[in-house]
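re: ur msg from earlier - yeah i can do the manganese (II) ion complex, just paste it... oh wait u already did. ok heres what im feeding in:
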Amino acid sequence: MSTASLEPTVNDVRTHWRTLWISDIHLGTSGCKADFLLDFLERNDSDTLYLVGDIVDGWQLRRHWHWPRTHNDVIQRILRKARNGTRVVFIPGNHDEFAREFIGFAFGDIEILDEDVHVTAKGLRLLVLHGDQFDGVVRHSRWLAHLGDGLYQFALWINHHFNRLRHRLGLHYWSLSQYLKHRVKNAVSFISGFEEALAGEARRRDLDGVVCGHIHKAELRDVGGILYCNDGDWVESLSALGETHDGQLQLLDWAAEMAARQAGFSKRQPRSLSLPALPSALRRQGRHP
Ligand SMILES: [Mn+2]
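and the outut:
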């Protein structure tokens, strides 16, 4: 008997949200994790779906054409949602700025807006926009935002061997890792600078919070009394932002969700359960009903 057929059926339940926000899908690039997104779209519905920019990567497509069938499937699944009654709002980003020419128009069931103010079920007013407009305000180059801990650890290792070689060549020590650490510090300050700039814009407009994307860093936190939400991306963090019907906002980490499901249990069960025991217990029940 296959174990798959005995997985709890609760895994197949679709979640219905008041609002979902996704952005930075980068369709048209090999980095786009379309399979994860298709799974997400299959299992999550909403009254309103915001596409918060960089949905299609026009920059990359112009350089190198990459469009597998799964990228069509993503678009078709979104169009199907729109046809079935989901309000779909597309807010173009800098990678799909070609769509900015069509702001104010509707393509079938999809509205194209420059930005929007979303009112949650609790009455919070949130500015929704991609966020690249604030790159100029934050004075660090954008690629720094993508440097992470793993790269830093790797740099430490490289640095060790690099300097052994320099020593053998009679050259003085030069710390690549220090250099990178400084740059990573700049990356950290870029992210916090971006978050503060976006929160500042919401404050300036007398709103309660902001929802954006762009920097591929999912976040949901208070920034100086303003609710800062970043829905992440579908290249690195594989995340979305959801609003429940009673107005609770939460980040959805879809990589973790899929890993949990593949391990044979549902996100609805407490994580503290002794989980590895669960599938085998179910299997035993299946054999001896
Ligand atoms: Mn962007």
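cool cool. Residues 138 and 193 are 6 Å apart (CA to CA). ping me if u need the other ligands too
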